[in-house]
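Risk mitigation, structural track. In case the binding assays with nicotinamide-adenine-dinucleotide fail to produce interpretable data, a predicted complex structure has been prepared as a fallback.
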Amino acid sequence: MLTRRILPKLNLVKSSIFKRSIMSIILNPTGQAMPQVGFGLWKVPQETCAETVYNAIKSGYRLFDGAQDYGNEKEAGDGIRKAIADGLVKREELFITSKLWNAFHSKEHVLEMTKKSLADWGLDYFDLWLIHFPIAQKYVDPATRYPPNLLYDVDAGTMEFEDVPISETWAEMEKAVELGYAKNIGISNFAGALIIDLLRYAKIKPSVLQIEHHPYLTQPQIVALAKQRGIAITAYSSFGPQSFLELNHPGAQKVGLLLSSDMITSIASAHGKTPAQVLLRWATQRGLAVIPKSNSQTRLAENLNHLDFDLTEEELAQISGLDCGMRFNDPADWPGQIYIFA
Ligand code: NAD
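Fallback model:
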């Protein structure tokens, strides 16, 4: 009952623009359709990124989730251009997301860096432009180092912060919409209190909140808050520790893998699906969008095509019961006890 009360009805539709089997979420305030399943570009190597994006489009992906920080915007753009040139897709059938990095939050840099990202992708506009983290870091001239990295001094392993409030950055994000650089703007890794504050002054409300979300971190309060305020949620790291193992994250090494857990594998075999499809369906049935990443053609197809079955209420609750507040990507750690991925 509680779940029903805090999770209002979803704005989920079948959009004629995207693949018929993929549901879309209607975004506020623009009314634009965002595919519920997309492809994440973090850690997709530059050398293979264009080909991966091209193949993903061929498999039916229409949403790509990039970021300045991922260092592969040019290559992702190459893959898109080839797909358009080969007649696989039109620009308006794609939904491209990218993210402003922490070093570019000040009013002098937001628009200039938005234009740089667009030029790197070879695009005229983003469908969605996000503030990657609600933390302003010291500016790094792209001519010196791009992407800038989480560390200001990479050799010394230190960070530097900048006194830029989110209100300043958001006002520039709004200008990006006014200038036609972005259709929708949004936020990522924002906590509830920050969202409430942003909504007080935002002239253009955030369309999307992107957060870490998996069965070890179900975040019911922020999910409810976003839904109540009409903000769509995109879940990242849907497979939990899987993505962080390769970064030697100590937490990821301690907790059990979700993809091979007894509970997830037995639910998967009950439905004749893979564990990855169960984890993604658990999130999409909660009304969230997902952006799994894979460099393998088979997994990429498996992840996209997971909307053709439903988990039972009991299975949804069982999976949500794995929540242990395990966060792998926590900006709150940065200013003090800084954990740097190896
Ligand atoms: P993910 O949960 O998508 O996991 C990726 C890992 O799972 C990889 O090791 C991959 O090989 C494996 N995998 C993928 N499909 C599989 C399958 N079907 N079976 C078995 N293993 C499979 O993790 P992620 O990359 O952390 O998150 C997805 C995307 O979210 C990123 O690419 C990025 O676009 C976005 N993201 C955003 C932020 C943010 O701060 N906003 C942070 C992290 C990730």
